[in-house]
């Protein structure tokens, strides 16, 4: 009789452990899927500026795109995004990198040179809360080459 209870407890603990491991995996996958959607929107807007728009004449504002970024916040079914950055890696490309609460870092490359409004090759966000609207603007850099400047709206 007591052996049955021990076996029942051991099986319950084992099944519960597997359930929690599965939930953690699903949380991470949900967050990665959500972030892929956000990164795709940013990528699409930046590439659209580079491919479809022309540099403005001197003294005029460049064409703009507005994108609202909403990162997973760690609510039920999602891991929180703890860090997000965009780094210009060369003349025509940028890397978008984000880190999840579990420590996993993910990156994607964008075919557009994205820089911070101060000309810094790196733009960072630590959280978006309910959403952060960013403005992407096509302007010439100091060499006259087209770049996409990003700033919080």
UniProtKB/TrEMBL annotation:
Domain DUF7311: 3-150
Cross-referenced InterPro entries: DUF7311
A UniProt-annotated Pfam family: DUF7311
Superkingdom assignment: Archaea
Protein name, UniProt field: DUF7311 domain-containing protein
Organism field: Haloarcula salinisoli
């Amino acid at each position: 009789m007591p052996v049955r209870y021990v076996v029942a407890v051991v099986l319950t603990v084992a099944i519960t452990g597997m359930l929690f491991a599965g939930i953690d995996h699903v949380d991470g996958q949900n967050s990665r899927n959500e972030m892929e959607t956000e990164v795709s929107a940013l990528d699409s807007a930046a590439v659209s500026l580079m491919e479809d728009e022309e540099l403005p004449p001197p003294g005029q504002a460049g064409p703009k795109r507005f994108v609202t970024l909403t990162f997973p916040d760690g609510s039920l079914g999602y891991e929180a995004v703890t860090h997000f950055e965009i780094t210009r890696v060369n003349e025509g490309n940028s890397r978008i990198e984000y880190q999840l609460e579990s420590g996993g870092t993910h990156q994607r490359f964008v075919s557009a040179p994205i820089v911070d409004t101060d000309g810094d090759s790196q733009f960072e966000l630590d959280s978006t809360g309910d959403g952060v609207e960013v403005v992407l603007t096509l302007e010439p850099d100091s060499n006259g080459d087209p770049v996409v400047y990003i700033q919080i709206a």
